[in-house]
Amino acid sequence: IFRHILQNSKDPNSIVIFVSLEMTLNSIATRWRNLVGEDSPLTDRLYIVSNFDENDKARCLTTAGILSECLKIKNGLGVEIESIAVDHLHIIQSVSKETLNDIWQKIKDVAVETNSFIILLSQTTKGKGGSLCDRPLDKDASFNCSQFAWISSWIITIHQPLGSVQGETDLRCLSWGYVKIREKSKNDKVQVGQFQLAHYDINSGHLRQLTKD
Fold this sequence. Notes:
With about 210 residues, the protein is α/β, with parallel strands linked by helices. It is built from 5 helices and 8 strands; from the N terminus they run H-E-H-E-H-E-H-E-H-E-E-E-E. Strand 3, helix 4 and strand 4 form a beta-alpha-beta unit. Helix 3 packs parallel to helix 4. The model has no long low-confidence stretch (mean pLDDT about 90).
């Protein structure tokens, strides 16, 4: 998503920010370089906010901490932030007995204050009852966040349609689809409820459409 946002941006100096609450800086940077290419002009337009300091101690970032870090980058560089991704909702530190609903609402406020498009990743109810997420997820699948669908403008779900057989085959499949769009348009290329199957290459991280076979 970040790559497409930057490729379609009219501002060559704008950036995207990945707020990582569990992945390491090196792993994210490596994936980004593999995705866009080592010599791509997009390489230097991704900034990472880590939940860990230089001594690998958790900083326990709150929504206020995320906003502060993003504004520090935005104002320090004098650039516009196209998009911020937060990975993930369920690790954001709560304060004063905040619920996940409260945190998600505050993250939406971060979008307004930074004038950017926020992508908030969420844990789901996957794995309950022994399920390996073969079945599509609905718009209320954000675990323990009852107002997720109400607060969000768009929701994209991703599941493993062949999760139960992937241990016995080399076929890795993902399915994604919009399950909620606040402002639908007749020109939308993807409609709510239409799931798209794709093959996922574990080594490269690339997706491709599945053939009929």
